[in-house]
Hints:
By secondary structure, this protein is α/β, with parallel strands linked by helices.
Amino acid sequence: MLSxxxxxxxxxxxxxxxxxxNQQSFAVLLDCIGGLSTYDLNILNLNPEGNLYLKKNLDxxxxxxxxxxxxxxxxxxxxxxxxxxxxxxxxxxxxxxPRPETELIIDIVFKIFGKRSKKLFFAELGTxxxxxxxxxxxxxxxxxxxxxxxxxxxxxxxxxxxINSSGQSNLRFYCGHWWNxxxxxxxxxxxxxxxPPYIPKETYDKLPKEVKKFEPKRALLGGEDGLEHIRxxxxxxxxxxxDKGWLVLENHFDQGEKVKQLLLKNKxxxxxxxxxxxxxxxxxxxxxx
Length: 289
């Protein structure tokens, strides 16, 4: 650990933030690489006397911050960590950085099922870092879940995140394309969830540099109209869901009505478009029959 005066550190911090970026990203850098938590930072601001201890020196931290600012390199990839709900997740450029708006999926599921203590069986298609499935497995320890992904390396990250977040064993990881790994579970799911690639090609071409250059294209691009994967997931969902089983999807901000029509066409009922915290129809949910 490296000792430095609090006053010197606070002066350096101010200088770094003057270059650009935001407090939240800077806090991730300090926590994950510097070993200084947000709580520690708040204490320093209240009492700027004495010394503090860092895992890495200021020059190293500055070089990482400069990479983030100058190259638009996501701070989560540089630090190898993303914070999501109450989880601290390992991330690499093989997985999409879990977004704050996606956190609402857990609240949607809670609203559907409440505090039901009985066992339920859920699956998440395209788990990435594992964020959604891990959060559900922790919140509902009596439930059993399966998380799938097409990439074995991605599943290794998700599995590691589950092990690091929990001592539980109620979540398993299967490799394959969407429903393919679940062939032996037809008609058995109470709930299926997916945050699939849904960005239309024209929109993808215009994405900000920090997204398009660094995040995996396969996790973002949803074909010409953005609905390629959503269409496939909905069409096959009736084979895997129980009667009255639920499907919860995240979609692009302007796709809610189209997704609703796809659900209706495939015999779903109780369909609802759910807004995110910005008032955007970010999720579409439905119950099978």
